[in-house]
Amino acid sequence: MIAIYPAPLLSSDKVLNTLGSRYVSLEWTRFANLAKGKNKAFRLGFGLGVEWYNLMFDHSRVIQNNANAIAFAPVLDQAGKEVALSKNKLAASYITLPIMPHLSFDEQSTIQMIALGGYVSYRIDSWVKTKEQGSGDKNHYSGTYLLNDIRYGGVVEWSIAPGCIVTGK
Prior knowledge:
Elements: E1 22-36, E2 40-56, E3 61-63, E4 72-74, E5 85-105, E6 113-132, E7 138-142, E8 150-161, E9 164-168
Antiparallel strand pairs: 1-2, 2-5, 3-4, 5-6, 6-7, 6-8, 8-9
């Protein structure tokens, strides 16, 4: 048997366990009134958020902390046999600063609020966590894993009924 290092990227390496993968975001938001009329208001929304991404893989090949390309490699035991993993995930955490100007309308209006803004995020940490099937041994490896340190994007929000806000990133 011949071992190839680094292992070639297989099409199955990028397949995620959709039920195990998740995104969690906690955000604290405040508003400052910039202008207020009889039936309308213009406000600036700003805040601070923390986000976590958990990407669960459906295989036993572990993503490598490589500076040039994404690579997955099998975990080998002392005898050189591939170890089966019951958990294999890439996780990342970010701190986020959102800024959103809001235009609010009166309660009789069909559209009650429209907001268009953006956010910038900084990567706090990223890591790979594995759990071996059978023995239950856990491993935790920190690294960049080719994730951007700075992220940014646009956000749109609107409200069409009291208490109902729709958000899109």
